[in-house]
């Protein structure tokens, strides 16, 4: 790949020197491997072909920095290799694992008129990895994800715990009048519920390895799974209009009931949580869609900007706005839904607009093609 990447770098240097972006994009799109060009100063994406956008899960990458596009645990997010190439002016290559695929990753310096490194050409070449190389790369990826998770957990747990300790101390020492004790109790209860949710999320992270080929599966009817779940939410949130529409009498699948229950409940819980007030509407439907069953959860909550849709299903990725900053979590809920869908041969998708609402759809293969 060295000669090919050097030739590409020369073409791109010429295109960039003309200060005209279209040739750069055309060159990238014409090359049948994932490629991108980054600004050397701040690692901002100047251009990226469709193949690299698929690797990043971000079709809207242009104009964003690597740190904004990728979580810290991603092997391409570390700024140090780019800085090394920028200082030395020499190309760099390494083996990385992304989404269980082994790649040869390269960074080529692109020099400007002053012969300084102004841009980087970065690309990926798929290759079969030797077992040892693959194991080492996966161990590094796992270790980086573990470190990221521990740092995130420490931060998220500290906030509700500080509130509980503060109010608890005031109550224990008689520092609150009678009129404020009820408020303190309510705040402690609220933050204890937040802690409970965080601890539940932490326990889930440790079990994601179950979502593999050895996952236990059985015959399940999605109608019997979804209907009692919705009734429970209707009892818990009486101020919300939570409606269930069943377009089929039965929806047989082959899967793991525990994980499917968690995934569907996560979609419903998000519809309940991410809204400006306690009232509103949530529509849940279960219908037939070709060879799949389609579970859809439609809400009238905050909604999500289209440019953030690609981030929703990434591990530990959280999209915080002023309206949602108070909602705690590790950013693993929708990642879990995606992994559950994949483990069952299905998929999860989203359609959302800010201040309008969101619709999350979980598609799962039918157990058979018989009529129900």
Topology, element by element:
Layout: H1 2-17, H2 21-30, E1 35-39, E2 45-48, H3 50-56, H4 66-69, H5 79-88, E3 92-98, E4 101-111, E5 117-126, H6 131-172, H7 178-205, E6 218-221, H8 222-236, E7 240-246, E8 252-255, H9 257-273, E9 280-289, E10 292-299, H10 333-343, E11 347-353, E12 357-365
Parallel strand pairs: 7-9
Antiparallel strand pairs: 1-2, 1-5, 3-4, 4-5, 6-8, 9-10, 10-12, 11-12
Helix pairs in contact: 1-2, 6-7, 8-9, 9-10
Question: Any descriptors?
Answer:
372 residues; alpha+beta; Beta-Lactamase; Helix Hairpins; Heat Shock Protein 90; 3 domains; five-stranded antiparallel β-sheet; five-stranded mixed β-sheet; 10 helices; 43% helix
- Could you give the count of β-strands? 12
CA gyration radius, whole angstroms = 24 Å
- Judging from the principal axes of the Cα atoms, what is the shape? globular
Give the low-pLDDT segments. none
Quickly name the level 1 CATH class of the largest domain.
Answer: Alpha Beta
- CATH homologous superfamily descriptor of the largest domain: Histidine kinase-like ATPase, C-terminal domain
Q: Give the helices and strands as they follow along the chain.
A: HHEEHHHEEEHHEHEEHEEHEE
What spatial order of strands do you see in the largest sheet?
2-1-5-4-3
Q: Report the major sheet.
A: 5 strands, antiparallel
How much helix, percentage-wise, in residues?
Answer: 40-55%
Beta strand %: 15-25%
- What value does the average pLDDT take? 82
CATH architecture title of the largest domain: 2-Layer Sandwich
User: What is the fold named in CATH at topology level of the largest domain?
Assistant: Heat Shock Protein 90
- Report, as a whole number of angstroms, the end-to-end distance: 54 Å
Structural class: alpha+beta
How many domain regions? Answer: 3
The DSSP helix count reads 10
């Amino acid at each position: 790949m060295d000669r090919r990447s050097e030739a590409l770098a020369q073409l791109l240097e010429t295109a960039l020197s003309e200060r005209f972006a279209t040739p750069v994009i055309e060159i990238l799109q014409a090359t049948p491997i994932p490629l991108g060009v980054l600004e050397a100063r701040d690692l901002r994406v100047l251009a990226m072909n469709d193949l690299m956008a698929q690797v990043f899960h971000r079709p809207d990458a242009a104009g964003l920095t690597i740190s904004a596009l990728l979580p810290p645990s991603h092997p391409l997010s570390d700024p140090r290799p780019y800085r090394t190439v920028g200082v030395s002016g020499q190309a760099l290559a390494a083996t990385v694992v992304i989404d269980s695929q082994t790649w040869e990753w390269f960074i080529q310096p692109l020099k400007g008129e002053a012969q300084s490194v102004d841009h980087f050409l970065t690309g990926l070449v798929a290759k079969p990895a030797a077992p040892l190389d693959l194991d080492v790369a996966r161990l590094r990826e796992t270790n980086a994800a573990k470190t990221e998770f521990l740092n995130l957990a420490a931060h998220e747990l500290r906030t509700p715990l500080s509130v509980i300790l503060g109010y608890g101390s005031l109550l224990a020492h008689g520092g609150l009048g009678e009129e404020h004790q009820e408020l303190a109790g309510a705040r402690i209860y609220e933050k204890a519920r937040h802690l409970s949710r965080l601890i539940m999320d932490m326990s889930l992270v440790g079990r994601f390895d179950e979502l593999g080929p050895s996952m236990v599966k059985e015959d399940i009817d999605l109608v019997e799974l979804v209907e009692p779940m919705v009734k429970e939410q209707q009892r818990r949130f009486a101020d919300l209009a939570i409606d269930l529409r069943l377009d089929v009498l039965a929806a047989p699948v082959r899967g793991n009931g525990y994980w499917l229950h968690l995934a569907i409940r996560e979609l419903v819980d998000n519809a309940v949580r991410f809204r400006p007030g306690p009232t509103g509407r949530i529509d849940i439907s279960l219908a037939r869609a070709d060879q799949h069953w389609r579970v859809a959860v439609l809400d009238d909550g905050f909604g999500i900007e289209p440019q953030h849709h690609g981030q929703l299903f990434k591990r530990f990725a959280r999209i915080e706005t002023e309206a949602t900053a108070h909602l705690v979590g590790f950013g693993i809920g929708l990642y879990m839904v995606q992994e559950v869908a994949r483990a069952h041969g299905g998929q999860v998708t989203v359609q959302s607009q800010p201040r309008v609402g969101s619709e999350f759809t979980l598609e799962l293969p039918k157990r058979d093609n018989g009529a129900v």
